């Protein structure tokens, strides 16, 4: 503001000062008088001028009107003295740049691993996925734009130019420049198996406005740190000859970048080397030392231990597998199968006696075969007897089945052994020595073992 008459000379015919100025217009043309437009806003290039008849002037520059080099607006006005003489001149307004500058702010970092489905007190919104450490609060962070803006006149106020809802989260910007950001989802734009690094960013546009209305814009950049999967070592036990099933993913953590669980496992191999990823061999039998493993992409595993695979001290098979999350990060760990001894033990069975005196040449209904000689009491049924192996065998898993190793025809008679362990023996000839039979015993549903066979003895016939 100012008064254009302060440096003008009115001479002897001095008019009433409140009517000295008779007109104003935009521009620098002083060849003709400016008449009228007093008290009105006259638009210039960079602002507006109001000039009154008493010479009082007010110029309001437009915000953000000029480049850093500055500019000027020119207006023409005319004064008149008491006897009608006039003089016309100019008002020049030099409009300078306010030098309001805003820089990008990238001081805030949030973490995918802290994502959860709850809107905690510090959060702007709940998450849509769960990270590997949902108890953490680092999905939300705060920052300030104070210091990011220089220049201008008076106090600076801040507003958001873009939507408060971004691609991966929400922001709240206050007029004093303080802001808060909450991550709500996980970017799926990783660079493969590259670990827990800054995988992405979220950008918002803000505007800084000074007290004169000058403004400038810049960005708030939120850095987002990737979450990574963690495969935890698995272990289980099985008895030799048995089968164990389970899912290796049950104790693994995928975090925010959760994949399609049907394709979460990418490979498996025998051995305990986790220094490199295991790729492939899913759905097929992988041979270990004591059994075979089949592992599918969905984590479902089945291990079949070989029968009679271990000594009583036990043993273990180790396999290595790798999981991968949705943006390509991997984790490799082991599956350990402890294979325990079945403790299947068979004792000799010698509870059965047969008698030579009962030998006859006829195959009676209870006999397995007729005798070849006649004893002193051929009408007696004592040449045939029955027994059971139940109780002679301990350990194993499940029901036991019994089978005869070798021929059912011995040197002096015949035997019939049933799967339930019951047996029958018929003496067919006479000789004073014991008869031994070999019987393998297995526990269902496993195949017959190849451990050293168990024998039981038929004592010599009782004297006639």
Describe the fold and architecture.
It is a single chain. This protein has 464 residues and is an all-beta fold. It folds into 4 domains: 2-94, no CATH class; 101-225, Immunoglobulins (Immunoglobulin-like, Sandwich); 234-340, Immunoglobulin-like, CATH 2.60.40.10; 344-430, no CATH class. The protein contains no helices and 33 strands. The chain has strands at residues 2-3, 21-26, 41-43, 47-51, 56-61, 71-80, 86-95, 101-102, 105-111, 140-144, 149-150, 157-160, 169-173, 178-183, 198-209, 215-225, 234-239, 243-247, 265-270, 285-287, 291-295, 300-305, 315-324, 330-340, 345-346, 384-388, 393-394, 400-402, 413-417, 422-427, 435-439, 441-443, 454-458. The strands form 11 sheets. A 4-stranded antiparallel beta sheet has the order 1-5-4-3, with no helix packed on it. It has a 4-stranded mixed beta sheet with strand order 9-16-15-12, with no helix packed on it. Strands 17-24-23-19 form a 4-stranded mixed beta sheet, with no helix packed on it. A hairpin with a 5-residue loop joins strand 23 (315-324) and strand 24 (330-340). It is rod-shaped and about 180 Å long.
């Amino acid at each position: 503001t100012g008064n254009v008459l302060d440096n003008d000379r009115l001479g002897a015919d001095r008019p009433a000062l409140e009517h000295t100025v008779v007109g104003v217009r935009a521009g620098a043309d002083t060849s003709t008088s400016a008449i009228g437009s007093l008290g009105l806003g006259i638009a210039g290039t960079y602002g507006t001028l109001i000039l009154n008849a008493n010479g009082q002037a007010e110029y309001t520059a437009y915000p953000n009107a000029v480049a850093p080099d500055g500019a000027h607006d020119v207006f023409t006005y005319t004064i008149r003295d008491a006897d009608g003489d006039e003089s016309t001149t100019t008002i020049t307004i030099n409009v300078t740049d306010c030098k309001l500058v805003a820089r990008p702010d990238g001081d805030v970092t949030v973490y995918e691993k802290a994502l959860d489905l709850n809107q905690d007190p510090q959060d702007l919104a709940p998450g849509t996925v769960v990270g590997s450490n949902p108890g953490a609060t680092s999905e939300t962070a705060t920052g300030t734009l104070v210091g990011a803006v220089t220049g201008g006149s008076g106090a600076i106020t801040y507003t958001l130019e873009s939507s408060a809802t971004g691609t991966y989260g929400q922001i709240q910007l206050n007029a004093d420049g303080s802001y808060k950001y909450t991550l709500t989802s996980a970017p799926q734009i990783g660079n493969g198996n590259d670990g827990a690094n800054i995988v992405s960013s979220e950008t918002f546009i803000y505007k800084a406005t000074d007290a004169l209305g000058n403004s400038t814009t810049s960005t708030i950049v939120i850095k987002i740190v990737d979450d990574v999967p963690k495969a935890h070592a698995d272990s289980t036990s099985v008895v030799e000859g048995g089968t164990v099933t389970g899912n290796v993913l049950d104790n693994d953590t995928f975090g925010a970048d959760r994949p399609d669980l049907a394709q979460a496992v990418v490979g498996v191999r025998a051995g305990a080397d986790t220094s490199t990823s295991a790729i492939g061999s899913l759905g097929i039998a992988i041979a270990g030392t004591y059994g075979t493993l089949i592992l599918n992409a969905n984590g479902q595993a089945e291990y079949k231990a070989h029968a009679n695979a271990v000594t009583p001290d036990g043993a273990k098979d180790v396999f290595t597998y790798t999981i991968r999350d949705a943006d390509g990060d991997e984790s490799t760990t082991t599956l350990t199968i402890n294979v325990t001894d079945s403790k299947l033990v068979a004792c000799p069975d010698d509870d059965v006696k047969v008698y030579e005196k009962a030998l006859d040449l006829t195959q009676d209904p209870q006999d397995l075969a007729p005798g070849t000689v006649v004893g002193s009491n051929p009408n007696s049924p004592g040449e045939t007897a029955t027994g059971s192996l139940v109780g002679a065998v301990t350990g194993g898993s499940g029901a036991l089945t019994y089978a005869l190793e070798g021929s059912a025809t011995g040197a002096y008679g015949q035997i019939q052994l049933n799967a339930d362990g019951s047996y029958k023996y018929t003496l067919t000839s006479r000789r004073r020595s014991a008869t031994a039979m070999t019987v393998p015993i297995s526990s269902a549903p496993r195949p017959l073992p190849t451990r050293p066979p168990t024998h039981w003895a038929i004592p010599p016939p009782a004297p006639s």
